[in-house]
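Final report, closing paragraph on structural work. Over the funding period we assembled a curated collection of sequence-structure pairs, and we close with a single example.
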Amino acid sequence: MNVIPLFRSRRADALRAAARWAAVSVPGHLSARGLAVPTAAVLLLPLAVLLPLVLPWASVWLAPLFLLAAALRLAALVNLALPKAPEPPPLADADLPSLTVLLPLYREAAVVPDLVAAMGRLDYPRHLVEFVVLLEADDPETPTAAARAAPPSGWRIVTCPPGEPKTKPRAVNIGLALTSGEVVVIYDGEDRPEPDQARRAVAALLADPRRAVVQCALAADHGGPWFTRCWASEYNVLFGAILPVLSRLGLPFLLGGTSQFIRRDALMAAGAYCAHNVTEDADLGVRLARLGWTSAAIPSVTWEEAPVTLRAFLQQRRRWIAGHIITALVHLRRPAQTWRDLGPAGSLALLAQLPAATASTAAHPLGLALLLGGDATGWLGLLLGLGYAAALSLYWARGGSVFLLPAFWLLQTAALALALHDVVRQPCRWFKTAHGVAERRAMPPPDSSVG
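Its predicted structure, as stored:
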């Protein structure tokens, strides 16, 4: 009997089954699958922000959201002045769990050699790691580049079957269904994690049996136009101040799109990633918290490529904002149940990161105009002053320049307008960010002694 065709048939059947599961892994009431948002609903946001111009007393409606956003930033400022919490010591090789590294790539031929080199520098026993490259069928250039890059033995390349929605989380779910590592991490094509990141993250993950995920810090390793530098400062504030204070307080936070080390059992219990949410990372963080799992952040850095063109920035940011709006809508379908699942502190923490952040972005042009015109008085003036003071102080404390931030936030408001259109018309559209564009510093060659 020829076993090769039989093996191939079974492998193809497993791939098709994985693709079917990948699109529907999350229970319907917790998924963005089938979510329909009417145009009138998204218009409520700009109307709510502009209403205080007509009815000044209406600013009290926005007060709780703006106060939450300011309180989170003030807490982050206080936390920066406190001693950093120590990380758990690294585990001995014999105590390390198996690790699945998922590498979803789409039109990423330019960064494949760098990715192979970056993964080659990870300090983790090679017999415990499986690297799985996830490709799309309509992208012939990336697999060609992968073949030329000659990844080390043990790497697998999986071409995802065509299907909808065509998103990163769908591809990642396919990879999940075909792998078995006890801990799972996703890296994007341009990622360059610090070599000891896996050991540090796994040690932090296993230090608490109720901890589902450890988020590592993300940062840009290059310069660029003014908005690229502001993007880098924003990441510095998010991963260097906001997430650490939430982690220290044991409160849930929105995960980043990469460099998150997750227990497989927790991930699967939560339904894996929502293939219909374009910020599947943020959504997963909420679902894990609702199941009672905790999250932590550590300062191990993954260097990334920031957008260096205005178009790329707006396309990326519109996807992020649309995904955050969709995530908020999904988990506010049954607000009382979400409140019970998360508890008061957890609910307020996520309200500060989702609707409060979105409302602040929407209100920025109005706030800027009122402050510059000297018309910010009463409730509205107090809220605006507190919000801007907290945000600017936090950026200043993290070493960022504050002078360009008002213009940077105006760009985010423009991206919000695009995102509102997407939420109604194309909620699953993935605006792919091109990589391999920026001039990044050269990486050292992989250490042959690692692993």
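Confidence is low (pLDDT under 50) at residues 1-7. The beta strands are 99-104, 129-136, 155-160, 183-186, 192-193, 211-220, 260-263, 294-304. We thank the funder for supporting this effort.
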